[in-house]
């Protein structure tokens, strides 16, 4: 089949005609109608129909990628050969396109009635072959009720694609309709997008592909139209993947650091980096690389990376662009990692000043490179940072982050720490000429101390490896992804229905659906969702759906209930024992013991806030409750200045969390402020107390709802697709001995 496609391309054909396209489908075991080809003559079309029984369909046959229905090139339900001839005459008379496009007629036996669907494919520049399924026919672009996946798909992927369709109730027989055969539809999806399917076998030769419509009845599926659009040239197969370092530990916990790009005036980027190392009390050796000075910033200077007294774990490179290649080439195998801050390299050139030259120099020096055009690495356990941080090196945690943007990296470190994030490590990778997002993703997946991974991406060079890594992480640890440029339209020429629908947003939605990564829209949502996963253990046995709202502010609870419902949550119904325990508390007038549980501030004040202990105890053990949202309106509660009730209420939440027996509902705090300095200060203090105890804290219901929805999607997906698997520890790496900064 690949040879046939190459012949068509060499003949200058942009697409296979429908007869040839259906022959390709039949070669992969997909049912197609019986058909015959005739010349562009009505009488010849009638003669072709005499060879088999009707009813018939007659269509224009063309090797151009045409939308035949839009041009008047299709007639259906023809009872006999005479009707076929008449229909062919009408087509010629009504044709709105160039008559030279009509190469003949295709006469087919009309398929039995059923539901019209579309199955399509295209080759994405980042992810390779992708498959689409959706509601088909002439309205496919109008309704755009479609789902995509990266090939090859497995049967669970195919089933999830169907579940994403808004039309699924129709396919399953809503309002008395005859349900389709889902198994027949799944069979076609696998023959198109499975491991040995059409897209995997022919993807290097195709640009776009459509079966529209695929008519699916109660017992079978038949492809009644097919369009295969050829790539302008055959794509090369994927080359070998690069070898990873044996360990990334020298990057995150270096014992020796070289800094190139230090000024005797104290104003260089390297000087700022050294100041940050001193601020965090870095305990290793630091070597300055300078072409002429004997010492800079109180440190001895060396002319090259090859002259340092000890091997270098991590080199921070901020030299001018012209000097960077020579610096890396001179490393002589004595540097494990070099992070190149320098920008301005020609991304696509080959000569001096190009990224290709920089990579070649790094290869000669046997050094692995991050960047260029990136800011650095932040690692509390290694006491290294590229951004000034408020909390210093005691903030080590379990959150691993990869960012293609240095600016976002600063935001994530600074704002993330303010929100309670505790990092295992954060790496900015810039242009990624050597090591890139996939390499760091693989490291964090295999690092046992990393519980949750965050990523900011603008592009991914090896999308197939990216998908494979995300699939490998399912059931192990969540990955939260912010994709920049997700709404840009794809590069397809839209010669098919699939091409017109295959924009970047659809592609990344497919990746999230297929891999279980949590796709977020803003850096704030990325931080909030990472914080949620940092503090909570995903409950795969009981994915989060049923909530209890507990706090002060009845109106706030009502509005919050609506917001959570819009995200797929519902208010939990209490078990009989829970209701009895709540009734036994004899909450005062003005309080509600149903869900939401609302107490006015004065009701909390009567017990100095300790009633929160009793309410949380009453809810404990109710298997119908997946999560408790405790929300406290701080300005109102803190106005009772003679009381410690806010502290006591937070203490109650911490005690409840510490008593978690492994089958307890999630506990989430919403601490609302009015923005005043006093309340904001109290909010910060209580937030960090609660987060340290494993309770996620949000400023409002909206951010809590977004993050909780991400958790619920991850729990549900992981519960359906995987059993949790403990990842293997990454190979250890022995770094060189270190000393101290002066």
Strand composition percent: 15-25%
Structural class: alpha/beta
Radius of gyration: 31 Å
Taking the alpha carbons of the first and last residues, their distance comes to 69 Å
SS summary, helix count: 27
Tell me about the biggest sheet?
A: 7 strands, mixed
Give the number of DSSP strands: 29
Mean pLDDT across every amino acid position: 89
Strand order of the largest sheet: 13-14-12-11-15-16-17
Could you describe the 3D structure shown?
The protein has about 750 residues and is of the alpha/beta class. It has 27 helices and 29 strands. Helix 15 (about 435-445) runs parallel beside helix 16 (about 465-475). The model is unreliable at about 490-495 and about 725-740 (pLDDT under 50).
List keywords for this structure.
742 residues, alpha/beta, seven-stranded mixed beta sheet, six-stranded antiparallel beta sheet, 27 helices, 20% strand, disordered C terminus
Give the SSE map.
Elements (H helix, E strand, L loop, with lengths): L1 H9 L7 H10 L7 E4 L3 H8 L6 E6 L12 E5 L2 H14 L9 E6 L5 E10 L3 E8 L4 H4 L2 E5 L4 H10 L3 H4 L10 H12 L4 H5 L3 E11 L4 E3 L2 E5 L18 H4 L3 E5 L8 H11 L5 E5 L5 E2 L2 E4 L9 E6 L6 H6 L5 E6 L14 H11 L2 E3 L6 E2 L17 E8 L2 H13 L4 E6 L8 H10 L5 E6 L5 H11 L5 E5 L13 H5 L2 H12 L2 E3 L2 H13 L10 E6 L2 H13 L3 E2 L4 H9 L12 E2 L2 H6 L4 H9 L7 E7 H5 L6 H14 L7 E7 L4 H16 L4 E2 L2 H21 L21
Parallel strand pairs: 11-12, 11-15, 12-14, 15-16, 16-17, 19-20, 19-21, 21-22, 22-23, 24-25, 24-26, 24-27, 27-28, 28-29
Antiparallel strand pairs: 1-4, 2-3, 2-4, 5-6, 5-8, 6-7, 8-9, 8-10, 13-14, 18-20
């Amino acid at each position: 089949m690949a040879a046939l496609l190459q012949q068509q391309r060499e003949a200058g054909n942009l697409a296979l005609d429908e007869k040839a396209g259906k022959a390709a489908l039949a070669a992969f075991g997909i049912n197609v109608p019986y058909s015959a080809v005739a010349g562009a003559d009505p009488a010849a079309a009638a003669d072709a129909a005499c060879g088999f029984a009707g009813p018939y369909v007659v269509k224009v046959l063309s090797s151009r990628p045409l939308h035949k229905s839009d041009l008047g090139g299709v007639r259906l339900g023809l009872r006999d050969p005479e009707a076929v001839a008449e229909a062919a005459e009408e087509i010629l008379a009504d044709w709105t396109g160039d008559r030279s496009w009509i190469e003949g007629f295709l006469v087919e036996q009309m398929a039995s009635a059923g539901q019209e669907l579309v199955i399509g494919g295209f080759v994405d520049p980042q992810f390779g072959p992708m498959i689409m399924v959706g509601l088909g026919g002439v309205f496919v672009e109008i309704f755009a009720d479609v789902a995509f996946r990266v090939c090859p798909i497995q049967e669970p992927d195919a089933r999830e694609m169907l579940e994403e369709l808004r039309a699924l109730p129709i396919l399953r027989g809503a309002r008395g309709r005859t349900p389709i055969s889902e198994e027949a539809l799944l069979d076609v999806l696998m023959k198109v997008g499975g491991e040995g399917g059409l897209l995997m076998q022919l993807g290097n030769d195709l640009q776009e592909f459509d079966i529209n419509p695929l008519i699916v009845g109660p017992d079978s599926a038949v492809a009644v139209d097919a369009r295969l659009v050829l790539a302008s040239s055959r794509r090369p197969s994927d080359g070998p993947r690069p070898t990873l370092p044996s360990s990334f530990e020298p990057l995150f916990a270096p014992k020796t650091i070289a800094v190139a790009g230090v000024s005797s005036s104290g104003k260089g980027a390297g000087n700022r980096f050294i100041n940050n190392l001193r601020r965090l009390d870095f305990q290793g050796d630091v070597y300055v690389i300078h072409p002429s000075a004997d010492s800079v910033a109180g440190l001895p200077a060396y002319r090259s990376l090859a002259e340092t007294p000890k091997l270098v774990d991590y080199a921070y490179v901020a030299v001018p662009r012209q000097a960077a290649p020579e610096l890396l080439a001179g490393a002589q195998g004595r540097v494990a990692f070099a992070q190149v801050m320098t920008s301005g390299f020609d991304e696509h050139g080959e000569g001096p000043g190009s990224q290709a030259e920089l990579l070649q120099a790094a290869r000669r020096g046997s050094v692995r490179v991050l960047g260029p055009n990136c800011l650095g690495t932040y690692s509390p356990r290694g006491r290294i940072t590229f951004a000034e941080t408020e909390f210093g090196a005691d903030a080590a945690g379990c959150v691993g982050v990869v960012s293609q943007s240095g600016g976002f990296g600063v935001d994530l470190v600074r704002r993330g720490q303010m929100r309670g994030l505790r990092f295992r490590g954060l790496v900015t990778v810039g242009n990624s000429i050597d090591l890139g997002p996939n390499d760091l993703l693989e490291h964090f997946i295999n690092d046992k101390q990393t519980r949750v991974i965050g990523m900011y991406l603008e592009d991914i060079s090896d999308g197939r490896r990216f998908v494979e890594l995300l699939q490998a992480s399912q059931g192990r640890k969540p990955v939260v992804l912010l994709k920049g440029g997700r709404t840009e339209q794809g590069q397809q020429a839209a010669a098919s229905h699939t091409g017109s629908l295959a924009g970047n947003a659809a592609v990344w939605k497919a990746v999230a659906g297929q891999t279980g990564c949590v796709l977020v829209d803003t850096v704030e949502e990325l931080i909030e969702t990472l914080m949620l996963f940092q503090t909570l253990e995903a409950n795969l046995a009981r994915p989060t759906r049923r909530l209890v709202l507990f706090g002060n502010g009845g109106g706030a609870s009502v509005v919050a209930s609506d917001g959570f419902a819009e995200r797929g949550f519902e208010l939990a119904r209490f078990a009989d024992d829970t209701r009895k325990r709540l009734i036994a508390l004899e909450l005062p007038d003005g309080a509600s013991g149903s869900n939401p549980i609302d107490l006015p501030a004065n009701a909390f004040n009567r017990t100095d806030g300790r009633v929160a202990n009793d309410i949380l105890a009453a809810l404990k053990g109710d298997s119908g409750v997946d999560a408790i949202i405790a929300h406290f309106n701080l300005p109102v509660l803190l106005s009772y200045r003679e009381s410690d009730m806010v502290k006591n209420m937070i203490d109650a939440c911490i005690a409840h969390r510490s008593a978690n027996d492994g089958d307890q509902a999630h506990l989430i705090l919403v601490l609302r402020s009015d923005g005043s300095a006093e309340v904001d200060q109290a909010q910060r203090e209580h937030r960090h107390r609660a987060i340290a105890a494993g309770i996620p804290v949000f400023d409002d219901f909206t951010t809590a709802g977004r993050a909780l929805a991400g958790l619920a999607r991850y729990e549900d997906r992981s519960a359906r697709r995987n059993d949790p698997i403990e990842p293997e520890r990454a190979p250890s790496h022995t770094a060189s001995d270190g000393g101290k900064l002066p």
